[in-house]
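Researcher: Last one for today. Full complex below.
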Amino acid sequence: MESSVSIRDLSLDFGSVKVLQSLDLEVAKGEFIVLLGPSGCGKSTLLNCIAGLLDVSEGQIFIGGKNVTWAEPKDRGIGMVFQSYALYPQMTVERNLSFGLRVSGMPKAEIEQRVNRAAEILQIQPLLGRKPANLSGGQRQRVAIGRALVRDVDVFLFDEPLSNLDAKLRSDLRVEIKRLHHRLKNTMIYVTHDQIEALTLADRIAIMKNGTIQQLADPHTIYNRPVNLYVAGFIGSPSMNFLEGTLNPANQTFVADDGTVVPVGTYAFETPVSGSTKAVLGVRPEHILIGEDAKSKPFTQEVEIEIVEPMGSDTLAWTKIAGKAVTFRCDSDVVITSGQKILIGFDPARGSIFNAETTNRI
Amino acid sequence: MAEATLAAQSKPEEISTRPSLLHNIFLRNLSAKIAALPMVLTVLVVFVGCSAWSVIYSFTNSGSLPSGKFVGFAQYERLFKTARFVGSAENLALYGVLSLVFTMVVGFLLAVLMDQKIRFENTFRTVLLYPFALSFIVTGLVWQWIMNPNYGIQKVAFDLGFTNFRFDLLTNSDTVIYGLVIAGLWQGTGFVMVLMLAGLRSIDEEIWKAARIDGIPAWRTYLQIVIPMMRGVVITTLVIVGSGIVRLYDLVVALTQGGPGFASDVPAKYVYDYMFARGNLGQGLAASTMMLVTVLIILIPWAYIEFGPKKNK
Ligand SMILES: Nc1ncnc2c1ncn2[C@@H]1O[C@H](COP(=O)(O)OP(=O)(O)OP(=O)(O)O)[C@@H](O)[C@H]1O
Ligand SMILES: [Mg+2]
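Model: Here's the assembly. Have a good evening.
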């Protein structure tokens, strides 16, 4: 696959603070990559490095096969969309879109053609004569996307473009960005701290922590086969349930700290394990089943429900396994009440096991 | 009110809304209105009242006491026939244009410089703002020494061997205004810089990033994006600097006494001289009314732009 953006051994320090540490990232042409991580993990910093808005301390950046490590932002073939929209408030929408092109001395006819195309794609033709102050948040963000669009570039960078919008608009515009990607087939690098955005939009997600990429994979793999405890805990809401204990490869069991035994014969180990190891078993709430469905699972136990949270589409229940608080999800039609005794079960094959010391998946 | 009455007549059933309208005007937020009363009275009596008083007495032939009889526009006719007043207005115009242009431009450029995340920014800012903390009298005295051929820069240059060097702006009636402008700049630019810097800092950093990605050169970003965004700050600064120029007085008194001759005379000094030194209140008030008119010419458009009906921003 042809590479569009390629980041090699990138480091960036602000004085003594190391924000990015020897980071590598290969983005294929036409790929939609989402950078996901908690606040302050360096997502925006990485994006600004790609855009050329920050000088890197070490490493190299290639865009479209060209080394652009020290190139000016405008010469990198990128367009960028910001959280605050960053529209020029005193200019009309039309001028916002065309200003950069005018400054670059492009012929009038071509400018007009590009602006019209962008306006048509984003359906903002009726807004062209207005000033940003007279637009709604969603409309402003469309104009901001349009400003990247008219540049006719191969790579789009988004820095939390939907964070300033309300929930409804956010999901609308999310779909629209996806549609835009299908239509244009540009490479897109998208920063967010919203998991839903990441899971729905991305071809691949890069989970970041403290300036390093923890895992780079498609959403399904990230969700189902997280490489370490951090990724496992970060992705998913409500988050994964964790049980601490010891893994005994000899008799294929995981023994929780209080003695509860979970057979793990069905689990597909990443690496062969020799000798008993301190480990953490992770199970997602929706992989814990109840009643008849639970009976056939390798691990079953009768538990008492503590709290029930109806969420509309499904119901979330809290209980304890091996002394640990555990949540599970069940269909909203199933009637469960707190205090009820119920049989639950799960298949460790759908879960994840991590080494307790290295926190890596085993 | 007229509209309300009309509406009430055409729709008799709405007559009952009239008392509540009166109620709205006088009783709604009553405590807030009572609290604002002293300030409103102060404004009415001190600002409007005193201004009105001085305008009214400018139409009399009052001497050293405000007691003369009404003489129509006679004081104004005399005012515009007096070479000294016309000259002082011309001086002020020249000073005003130069001072306004240079304080704004230099102040803005300094602010831009400060905004480059330079080191020791606080030190520079304090140093540049320091003259603003001084009174015009002190500024005047300092610059009187600096520009005095016998003590100041000229003397220093002379002692260093540059015997042809001249820095005697104040003693030459053609150049004395420029001396005033320099001293005024020294005092005023720091203040303008601080205001402008605050304006620059209020611009979202993402605007700058967007402009860089669009490939817009920094100077164009300042000129076509940032300055238009700072409109409020720029206009407020213009008004402050502008009204400071119109009432220019103490700097002139300290630096040149209006001299040589009347070469650096200004309207405020004319007013003062006629009202207190020459005991001709009528003439002084006529001149001060002209100053008031000038200030209003500056202020009214500003107030209209800033607080007037909201149009598209
Ligand atoms: N100019 C700077 N000087 C020093 N440290 C900085 C600077 N800019 C960012 N940082 C630090 O770099 C780290 C990463 O910042 P960054 O803005 O990339 O985070 P982020 O992942 O985008 O977070 P968020 O989700 O809140 O936007 C933070 O710890 C921040 O404090
Ligand atoms: Mg950020």
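Chain A is about 25% helix and 35% strand. The domain at 3-233 of chain A is CATH 3.40.50.300 (Rossmann fold).
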